[in-house]
Amino acid sequence: MNWRHIQLIFQREMSDQLRDRRTLFTITILPLLLYPFIGMLMTQVAQFKRDSSVSIQVFGLENWPKQLPLLDENGELQVRPGMESLVKGVTFDPYDGSETDREALEKLAKESIDKDRYDLVLFVEENFREKLTKRLKADESASSESLSAGELPDQSAAEDTATDPGVENLAAEDTPSQEVFADKEEAERSLSNDGLSIIANLARDKSQLAQRRLGDVIRIWQKEWTSLHLTDAGVNPKVFEPINLQATDTAPTAVKKAMLWAKILPFVMLIWALTGAFYPAIDLCAGEKERGTLETLLSSPARRREIVWGKLGTIFVFSVASALLNLFSMYLTASLIVKQLAAASPGLQEALGPMPFHALGWLLLLLIPMAAIFSALALAVAALARSTKEGQYYLMPLLLVTLPLVAIPMMPSLEMNLGTSLLPISGAIFLIRAFIEGRLAEAFVHMPFVLGVTATCCWFSIRWAIRQFESESVMFAGSERWNLRLWVHHLWRAREDTATPPEAILCGIIIIVALFFGRIMAGAGTPTWLFIVQSTIVVQVGLILTPCLLMATLLTRSVRKSLRIHRPQTSHVLAAIALGFCMHPSYMLLAEAVTQIYQVGDDTKAALSGFEGIVTSAPLWGVICVFALLPALCEETVFRGFIFGGLLRQKGVLRAIIVSALFFGFVHPVLQQSISACFMGVLLGFIAWRTGGIICTVIIHAINNALGIGYAWLSANDYELPPALAWAMQTEESGAWGYTETWVFVSMLLSIALLFVIARRSTETQRFIQAEMA
Amino acid sequence: MVEVDQLTKSYPDLQTGKFVALDHVSFSVGEGEIFGLLGPNGAGKTTALRILSTVLQPTSGTASINGFDVTKHPYEVRHSIGFVSNNTAIYERMTAWEMVEYFGKLYGLEQERLEQRMETVFSQLQMNEIRDIAGARMSTGMQQKVNIARAIVHDPPVLVFDEASLGLDVLVARALLEIISKLRDEGKCIIFSTHIMREVERLCDRVGILHRGKMLAYGTLAELAAQEQESDFEELFFRMLKNSDAQREAAEGDKNVVKTVSLWGNS
User: Fold this and answer.
1) Cβ neighbours of residue A40 closer than 8 Å, sequence gap 6 or more
2) Which residues face A122 on adjacent strands?
3) What is the Rg, in whole angstroms, of the alpha carbon atoms belonging to chain A?
4) pLDDT tens digit string along B230-263?
5) Nearest CB neighbour to B89, from listed A12, A291, A487
6) Which of A2, A5, A8, A296 best probes binding to B when mutated, by most B CB atoms within 10 angstroms?
7) Nearest CA distance, B236 vs chain A (angstrom)
8) Mean pLDDT lowest for which of A205-214, B9-18, B211-220?
9) Do B88 and A487 touch (CB under 8 A)?
């Protein structure tokens, strides 16, 4: 690789982009203006929301208890402690008309609402005051009943209540009736006070706001009313708040201030890093195709790889710059807004103070690998586009794939663990959050995994971008008219011995979609052995094998070749049989490790346990047929046959191994199974490649499944472990059969040796595989 | 200098299954010679020249430039060639000087030598007036001059002009032909594709006529005239294309006849 070429291309692309007013505006000017503008708008909206008052018409205000009036003599809200902020927010307007009929008043109220004169109408019913007082009496009655039932009495309180002159006075003034309820049920019924009612159009925001504010007013009034009566009755109102939880917060203020920022800023930063990468990528690739300058560059001495690196560098710089400027502008604006808001609410200052400086440093560290991934992805996607317009269409799928990964760390219940640290992009955000929040030990433990995943993603993205540029299609510009009929006709006419890479990927997608809908439609049937057999056959034959066979028949010239049914070398078959047995301990170990990292949920455990119970009570031969032979045949035919063969073309060995393994993993319903299957798929892919067909992988797959399900069946049916196997196997505490540590280690070494045997190919196999890869 | 042997290029095509853009084309061009690649639109000229400039890969056949195979040694080929096409545009936000300098550096010229070459090329192509003008503000003629300048700045032994005069006015086209003629006099090996007969007559030492991806004729103008007994080159060109199409139609007609006969026979 010529670094001088890369440097030259990078410098040219940089200066070219910097001379473009649109790019400069989007990358630099827009973020600097956007956030202050949004901030100003938000402050104004908040101000407007604070200032905007709602109006409430009150009918029957005369029925309100006079001890604690709702409104003062001027008709304004009687301010009580806690109501200060509501004074400006609610305007009450008592009805001063002469109408007294309830129905007529209701009609008037509805009219007021419909004609938008008021946001809400409050009815204080005639019996409101009476009900309030009845409640007091009901409490007394309930209290005396409690006493008679032998409950623990609050003697002094009861006495105080009975002799309190204040309560008597209140009752004398407000209550026309001195009724004492005969029984507790009647007293309870009377507790439902329907003396207040509202009429409002709750489809309107202002009516909803009026309802909320009225609720606040009533709550505060109610508290004071209760407090007053309790005090009058000689009861300390605090008795209803018996616990005062004392909290000691060990989090340093700096960390608390960083918490919210640590969640929001990575999200904003990464979205802008992606956007900042995408637009220059479109211009540098699809734009150059349109302008005809890409061909000029491709005919220069710069290699395609060097062109990619030069362009990638430019896109990377713009991605980083765009994210940084947005981050800076947003942070500055938000800090100023918080400062302004904090003046009114000091608690906010502590919760949302300026972010610690070191946190910004960590964010920058996160930005670099993420911008590299996004830049490479954007360049590769832009290389697919024939025009700028087409390129812009590709932004949405890229965003749809990336957004969930960026958003996952914002979910409140998710923490960093081995599982989440292995998620691309999300893992890096979790790591940076751990650093920002000062959880250094946790961060350092997970850092190697995050770095590993991030580096792998970077490598694959860059490799994809280079591959796009090395393809001739990178040069062709202009739109292509697509015709379904011609395309179908072309597919039929241009059939080849094996599937093409797009056909292979389409097959995988069809199977995943079919399984998704198939599983939903199947629902949860009665868990019987017959049901399990039927559903396994439907899944394996109907949803996995059938689409593949149809595609192989319709889209290829040779079903046998497209499914990679090829007689393997004898040495490969023997090695595959041995490998099936030797690899099983490693697979069990892997499955266990995966289960440790990604814990199986209780629901899944319960479902699997029920399933195991049924399976282990079925005949062993049937279990082996359904769970070992059938999946081995169907899944290998599809994943290591049709899909692998299609992807293997054009020397796409790595692509074939990885993509077929991913599809293989996706078809397993349980996440933990999927992850183990993905790893297993990679190994089976390698074997399928070296042996030139699926026979060996069918053998390994069948033996692996048979051993797993067979051991479970035998141990569940109380079979004793044969003493002859004591050197390799043992009975676990749970009663299940497992492998000894020595055998696990030895079998691993043997597996590696057997893989070397499989990697050796005869000339005939070599020739066959080379033809497959052409 | 340039050796092309049985060069074939095909693309997948929705309509016909496979579109053969070049069908076993062979020719050679020597030092100090202008070879005219002549053909109507869609004849396969651009495909052939894109393969020579290593932008495309041939489906089969070989091509070498200055002794380097285009598929095995593309990097060396690109150093030996200057490629100008009506598809190769110039950067809109770069001045003429910057653009030529950029390509000169990509070709690995040292700063001193580069400046020397740029001065020579700018004077030779009379571009000194436009050296500080950005590509977007240039006329088509100016852009084509810049294109030529960036293709010859590294002084390559082989130059490929693919319909380079397309869209140029008479004056600029004439100037372009003069430039190409001078380059030939300097000993350059030049491949010049066009569908304008007068340019061929005026410039080319030998010509190859491409039609539907096939080389219909190949030789000097005099040889072709003698072969077809036609002194007017334009007339000769038309006649060759017409005969080729007629032969093709006849061949297709024969196929239909055979089909019809077999159908009758079957019935």
Assistant:
1) none
2) A58, A198
3) 37
4) 777 788 888 888 888 888 777 776 655 544 444 4
5) A291
6) A296
7) 34
8) B9-18
9) no
